[in-house]
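#struct-help
A.M.: can someone run this one for me? Single chain, 754 residues.
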Amino acid sequence: MEMRESSSRNGSSSNSNSANNNNNAAHLHAIRHSMMNNNINYDNHVVAGDVNMNDNSTNNHNHGSAGISSSGSSRSTARFAAAGAGDANNGRLMMMQPQQQNQQGVTSTGSGSSQDVIMHNNASIHNDLHYNNPNNNLYHRQPQQQQYYSSSAGAPSSQAAASSMSSHHNNHHNLLTDINPNNTHYSQYSSITYPGELTVYSWGRGEDGQLGIGDTSDQDEPTYVDALRGVGVKQIACGSGHTVVLTGEGEVYTWGRGDDGRLGHGDNGWKYVPRLTHSLTGQIITHVTCGSYHTAAVSSNGDLYTWGGGMYGKLGHGSESGHSTPRRVEALVGLSVIDIACGSRHTAVVTNKGCLYTWGDKENGVAGHGDTEGHQYTPKLLERLSGKKVVQLSACGFHTGCLTDQGECFTWGEGKFGRLGHGAERNCHSPRLIETLLGKRPKQIACGGFHSAVVTEDGKMYTFGGGEHGQLGHGDKVNKVKPTLVQALDGIVLQQITCGWSHSVALTTNGEVFTWGNGDHGKLGHGNGKKVSTPQLVERLVGHLVVRVASYNEHTAALVEPQSIADGGSRRRAPGTMVPVSACYLHDMKEMVNDEEYSDVTFIVEGQPIYALRAVLAKRCEHFAAMFRSGMRESEAGVEIPIPTISRAVFLLILEYLYTDSVKIDLDHAVELYIASDLYQISSLRDMCCVIVRRSIGAENATYLLQGAHEAHCHVIKEIAMEYIVANFDVISKGEGIKAVSHGLLLEILSLRP
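D.P.: on it. Structure tokens below:
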């Protein structure tokens, strides 16, 4: 039986925030009161006053329950408010128009209900979020910014992405490399430096919610994780039944199976959509990974945090106790960790000096210290490699592999099936050189449950170990005790390989994904559950530029880059795939918002003019279309149109969305923007407010959000906040935020508690 650590959250908030919430609530109430009383009607079309916010049936058509759990961010305000004009980085919310959907429609064959939120103009989500599969997404990128990929021993690339946040990584810059396969070392776990946001696709087994799509269905083709829309993901890792991602701002989201506390939320509950790990608030995380039952993260100052099941001492805290929230590994304080790998019963890290430390189970030589009795409860230097500089590391199941700066490949642990590549099935109690790979210039090793794979500098791949399911890719089901070249990929240059327990996933330098091995639960992504013994292209991802892949046990994930038409059509595209809108186009459209030079209508908001173009507003919003053709004063040219009941900031957000189909939503604006977009009948924007609230709500902001939504009569967001507070009342009731809740609301909360 494992000990579990109780949740610890900061429930404090400033008086100014409370005052702002009260002011906003009063302002929002005035909006609703004024517009409902006026009940403005254009072309006999009621645009305000006829919406029952309690009646989800008016908006939730043909949807079933998705079981979305709340997610949160203590830095949500900073995330969604910090970017200025033209910012295409983290927190950008991308909306799709109906005509942008692929003709194939929904492809989620593993479930009776579709899976991803499509943000087009007739979408409705409200409290129960439901999903359709977006086959095309409207991406964007900062104009005139190049793509940068860097993965050297995993963590340095993460640190490079976070270099603007921390000065601790200058000594790692010499490790950074580009996408050239001839000079890049990769970690097993996906890590990129990219100036925009990356989207996440997942597929395979979903029984534990590890796919992040809101339910427990399997998916036999890559499925867009819409709950991460607007989050600038830069790294992803898969565990046995859970998944973890790292954002460009150094925040960590986890989801899936929650027993042993492996998700880090202070409980053992399952989460079916990504949820922020609040306990890491205040830390800028640069690298994440997970094993079968535990998770780990490296901070910008090189500290290591681990959580989850503590059996065999794999958390490194000196005992076998588990922890349901991240806890710093004190034995490594003073060292700078840059890479980490987790197996089923052990953990290994590399420091910035290239030193390798391991801990956990010693049986069969898993820890690599030469002995096999008992467990190693704290990190211990691996003496066998003390004279080497380790540059890349991988672990899975019961063995580990690493590369040195001299191009050497070492493996150790359980040798069954030949997974160590030494020509036999014997266990190795300490690191041993794979002689077959000498001179092959390996750049990445990936360990799977029963097999291993190595990618060389020239993009070739060697596999070895268990071949029962065809996971070695040689066209048979024969074990290989030495690294063997995968002939089926001859002529294809690989940049990364990741191995599950019985399948393999390879990524090419042109962003295509090949999978093979055991296809049960659909984890190969080919639309069925068949086994494949040679690499097969994942057709569902053709036309997308995949930049990293991840897998562990029964599911697979991919990070997909926003696309650009700048490739000139050089990459293969799926039939019927639309060319995405360019970054420059989106930037230019955003620049036209409130630009007098490109306007023919003026709105007066909070006493100041806001300029817009009638054609854009009328085409994108029926409210404005009806206004401009109504024959009323507002339709006359040159007339200034007063907007007395909406704040300037929110009105500009509405215009930005209408111009660009994307907008960054600050949690502080979510309630007002929900009401305003509902009254303007912009359903996709209204529903995205719900997504933002669900993802950003936390113990430190839930009570203020509840009180503000209640006073603004915004029942949908009130219900979201109420649901979260009831579920987390033991934590929230101990924080300062509970004082913001009125007596009547507090009684309502207590009445809903089980």
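A.M.: thanks! The longest helix spans residues 15-38.
D.P.: also worth noting: The mean pLDDT is 77.
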